[in-house]
Amino acid sequence: MNYSEFIKKYANHPHYKAPRGSIIHAKSWQTEAPLRMLLNNLDAEVAEDPANLIVYGGTGQAARNPEAVKEIIRILLEMDENHSLLVQSGKPIGLIRSHPLAPRVLIANSNLVPAWATWEHFEELKSRGLMMYGQMTAGSWIYIGSQGILQGTFETFVECGRKYFNSDLKHKLIVSGGIGGMSGAQPLAATMTGATYLGVDVDPERIKKRLETHYIDKMTFDYNEAVKWTLEAKERGEAVSIGLVGDIGDVLEKLLNDNIIPEILTDQTSAHDPLNGYVPNGFSLEEALELRKTNPILYKEKSLKSMARHVGFMLEMQKRGSITFDYGNNLREFARQGGEEHAYDYDGFVPKFIRPLFCDGKGPFRWVALSGDPEDIFTTDRELMKLFPENEHLIKWLTEAQEKVDFQGLPSRICWLGMGEREKAGLLFNQLVREGKVKAPIVIGRDHLDCGSVASPNRETEGMLDGSDAVSDWPLLNLMANTSGGATWVSFHHGGGVGIGYSQHAGMVIVADGTNRAAENLSRVLFNDPAMGIYRHADAGYKTAIENRKKFDLNT
Ligand code: NAD
């Protein structure tokens, strides 16, 4: 198939689809893999808004513009293994000379010199076509749909249940805002823990998408109906998820007036971006979208005030007994800017629930079957359960995920694995490819929400023991470690999760193509990547991380 035929079939904007099967179009799997993953990120089954190349997280894009997508495709189809492609904020810049063990693609997205790192400056550059917002896995081509955050959210709710509700979330209500790309994982994660869930999104189309993919059970436009369904389900101890169309601030106010106080309260609206993410209170969705274009300054002002009001209600619910936590969207910071002085009076989910996992080098390990055949993922699930027979938590997770998770785009899986485990799993997958037990290579990557690859003082590195929350040498070292180890593509981003100015983070993806060379690279990369988490947390003084450093022989 020549280039134009390929574009017509797989990248006819806005219709994108990754090729399936074991026949490659590029010169090797090293370049076929990023090609398929870029197209998969933009597949309508996966992306929130392919027409604007938006994958998830407000405006997180996979490439700068449709021309850039085509050019990346052309280069990946033609490139050999003695070169690497440079991508600057979603635009291909050129090739450098490298070697077969080096990454094939080197990506930098949305990075700005610190004193210029504001949404305003970013927007100005973006409007001149000079930048794009890469979020975390959008611009690094390893987004896998709502499943990507599902286990992290599940772990968070489980830990919350363990800490505050004797590990039993039956008859407990979780309330949250946002039912979009990542936030759409909350309803399913909540029901997987046995809780009842009420979620609110201002955009009905977003809730419909979650209904179609079975991430949410029911949807209504009517507050009273939502409350009736919610209270009935909670009373009966039913794990049901309900999506209500509305503004989350308004709904929290009504719940408070009706004295309906959820046991657990959080939020995952796209608050990281007060202009192109969060929708201010008092406008219909259409009016808000119009105001965004006609008067962005007023929009942002309204957005900040609405977030302050929204957080004010969350604080009131916290006072009345809700276990309240931030879920990584920087809502507290923008509420503070909007005038809520006490916005930081509730904690983020990392210090509250997740940091102990980070001290074990644990993070969201995800993989994708490039064949497109769901059976390949079921094979990896089974083999992984055999590899870790003692890990009951993992076995339970994989079994439930098989039953409850619909694949979006290329079949994929996520599970949290730590130091030692990730390397073993990677080598196992490579073996499965080598022995023909799966039909094509598998790519392995992770979110940037991870133990050793992020500096994000309102999220992953909030409240570090030694106060080093804002030190971003760590994600840079992670990038260098993964490049040195031979990941297949690496990336360094700014602003993911919490918005421009608030985070820096690194990503990696590596292909298991069944070769000895892949085994060597996998061994290095999947050792180094979690090791960075242990180094980072040991250096900050966390006792378990210091012990893990000894246990895994991570010497200086
Ligand atoms: P998204 O843009 O796909 O969805 C956000 C949803 O919020 C949209 O559907 C939007 O309609 C809704 N929304 C906006 N304002 C609202 C309001 N006032 N009331 C009700 N609904 C409103 O984004 P996403 O991918 O779901 O990500 C959500 C947020 O979570 C982002 O800020 C993202 O950066 C962050 N995030 C957190 C994690 C984590 O691990 N905690 C991971 C990824 C992303």
Task: Provide an overview of this structure.
The structure is a single chain. The protein has 556 residues and is an alpha/beta fold. The chain has three domains: 3-127, no CATH class; 147-346, 3-Layer(aba) Sandwich (Rossmann fold), CATH 3.40.50; 356-453 and 467-487 and 506-551, Urocanase superfamily (Urocanase fold), CATH 3.40.1770. Helix content is 44%, strand content 16%. It contains 19 helices and 20 strands. The chain has helices at 3-10, 29-42, 66-78, 119-127, 147-164, 185-192, 204-212, 223-236, 248-257, 285-294, 296-319, 331-337, 349-359, 374-387, 392-404, 421-434, 473-485, 516-539, 543-551, and strands at 11-12, 15-16, 54-56, 60-61, 83-88, 91-97, 105-109, 173-177, 196-201, 218-220, 241-245, 264-265, 323-326, 347-348, 363-369, 412-417, 442-446, 454-455, 489-494, 504-512. Strands 5, 6, 7, 15, 16, 17, 18, 19 and 20 form a nine-stranded mixed sheet that branches. Helix 2 (29-42) runs antiparallel to helix 3 (66-78), helix 9 runs parallel beside helix 11 and helix 14 packs across helix 16. It is globular and about 65 Å long. The protein starts with a helix and ends in a 5-residue tail after the last helix. The mean pLDDT is 97.
